[in-house]
Each structure stands twice: as C-alpha cells, then as structure tokens.
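Q: Could you fold this chain for me?
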Amino acid sequence: MKKLLLLSLVALFSAAVVRGGVSRVDLVDRIETCEAILQEFQLRRDTAIPAEVLAKARAIIILNQFKAGIFLGVKDGYGVILVKKPNGRWSLPVLISAGEASLGLQVGASAVESVYIVTDANTPRLLFNHRFNIGVDAKAIAGPKTAEAERYNTEILQTPMLLYTKVAGLYAGATVKAGHLSRNDSANFLLYSTRYTMPELLYSDWVQPPAEVQPLMALVQKLAP
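A: Sure. Below is the predicted structure, expressed as structure tokens.
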C-alpha cells in the first residue's frame, strides 16, 4: 500500500511539472500521439470506426488520458479537436485538456485512448465556455465498430457524440459519462505562435497549418472527406 501511495504521489508531482513546463516540442508530440491513436484505431478491426459513422462526423476529438493510483485519484490527459467546415475541409487540430476518465481504467498507473465522433455542429461550440462535461452537456454513447455492423441503427448515428475506445465490454449504444474537456488556449498560443483562441482556430482560415499538424489533418480528411 505504501508503495502504491508513493507511486501516486510521484505521478501527481510529474503531472504538475509537465503542465508547468510544457514546450512547443511537447505540444507537437501531443499532436503526433493523437495522430498515432487514430491510425491505430483504424488498423484494428475491434476498434475501427465504420465509414458510415465517419461520414456523419462534424467534429472529431482524440484523447489520451491517464490515471495513477486509486487513493489520490490522479486523473489527467490531453487531446485535440478538429471540426469539419462548410466547404468539407477539416480545421486545424486544436489542443484541449481532458480529465476524470473512468472508462474501465485499471488499478495503478494506466491509460485510455479514445476517439469521439461528434455528429452535430453545435456540440463543439460548447467548449467555448472553457469546460464541457461528456455525457452531461451532450448525450454520448458507445459507437458501433466495424466488427459490429449488425448494431447500426438510426438512433445511434444521430447521437451527438459517439465514443470509440479500447475498453473491453463497452457495447454499441451504451450511455457514456466520461469526465470533462476544457480549452487549452495557452497551449495553442504556443503551438501556433498566435493569440487567436479556439473559435478562430477552428472556424477561420486566419492561421496557416504548420508542417507538424498537416499529417493529422490529412489523415482526418482521408477518413472523413
């Protein structure tokens, strides 16, 4: 027990250090990690997001979340959001923070990777208020996977947020409450060398995508043209 408590304290301290001393290199690494998560999801039959679901996407959220210990309950994470513009092109990936992941995380240090397909244009704008609670501010359910084609139905595909994760036993249509997302304007200021905030980065063309984010944008455009 003492050892587990010590590990939890170390994780808490490490998380604070990372948040306090993040560099642009760290932020680029987050973008690349989110790209890798989406690629891996699509390569595995048990996690792949069907083309029929991707065709409904108006925004895509990719998350990498962590938990260390059960006594202190240290929960943290990051992700990106991209929105589909009226012309069919996808936006810059905008960095966000994510917390309170509780989708079957194991005791001790662990991680959960998730992709949310947002099927309406209004839900992404809820993040403009700085904090958004998944499954509370907008309904969220587990989305059908390529390996579960028989579970498709109109109601599922019309749900505002469809979750894809590697957690076992989460069946298509199951209601999800998975913590909160929040804006991370300071990270985006550093990544994009701009003072534009989330609304401008997502919905305008005022900032040209740097080379480091273009592979993720290209991947999303290919998957959900």
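A (continued): Confidence is low (pLDDT under 50) at residues 1-19.
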